[in-house]
Amino acid sequence: MKRLLLLLLASVLAAPLQAGPLDWAKRQFKEHPVRTRIITTAISSAIYAEGLKKCRVSVENCQEHYGAAWAGYGSTVALDVVGQFIGYKIGGKTGDAISYGSSTLMLSWGAYQWNGGLNKPKEAHETHVDMSGIVLVRH
After folding, report:
1. DSSP states along 104-131
2. Cβ atoms within 10 Å, residue 14
3. Domain locations in the chain?
4. How far apart are CA 28 and CA 99, in angstroms?
5. pLDDT tens column, 41-64
6. Cα–Cα 20 to 30 A to 14, which of 30, 45, 46, 51?
7. What is the distance between the alpha carbons of residues 127 and 99, in angstroms, rounded to a whole number?
């Protein structure tokens, strides 16, 4: 118990002395805004492309169904890049919300497409509980 308390005390006292990964991420967003915007756009567009590729196996479940899905992908990425430029020009918290918000939306839509898309078929599952194996009273 004493070792746990000493470890907890040491971690509490040492926390202000070291910069953790959250401090590093905050510093990257403040000191290198263009680089972080490019990286977030690249990562979100790559995940969106992979999600669209996996979704196109069953065309009915995809974003554009039987239409030009890759044209929709190109226009979505182009809108994200425009959002990055607008967010950088506006600056501040509003600009960050525009630029990182557009990348977050594209990332979430890509993950949604990756996991099955719009008309994902419902899995067959039973709605009642099987009570055949339960013994209620033993003699």
Report:
1. HHHHHHHHHHHTT-TTPPPPP--SS---
2. 9
3. 31-66+79-116
4. 15
5. 999 999 999 888 888 777 676 777
6. 30
7. 44
Residue 28, both tokens: 């990257």
User: What does 6-62 look like in DSSP terms, one character per residue?
Assistant: HHHHHHHHHGGGS--HHHHHHHHHHH-HHHHHHHHHHHHHHHHHHHHHHHTTSGGGS
Q: Under a CB-based contact definition with an 8 Å cutoff, are residues 116 and 55 in contact?
A: yes
Task: For residue 99, give Cα distances in angstroms to 56, 87, 89, 123.
Answer: 28, 5, 10, 37
State the greatest distance between any 2 C-alpha atoms of the chain, in Å, as a whole number.
Answer: 80
Closest alpha carbon to 61 in 116, 11, 137: 116
- Residue 16 confidence class, pLDDT cut points 50, 70, 90: low
User: Tokens 């979430």 label which residue?
Assistant: 108
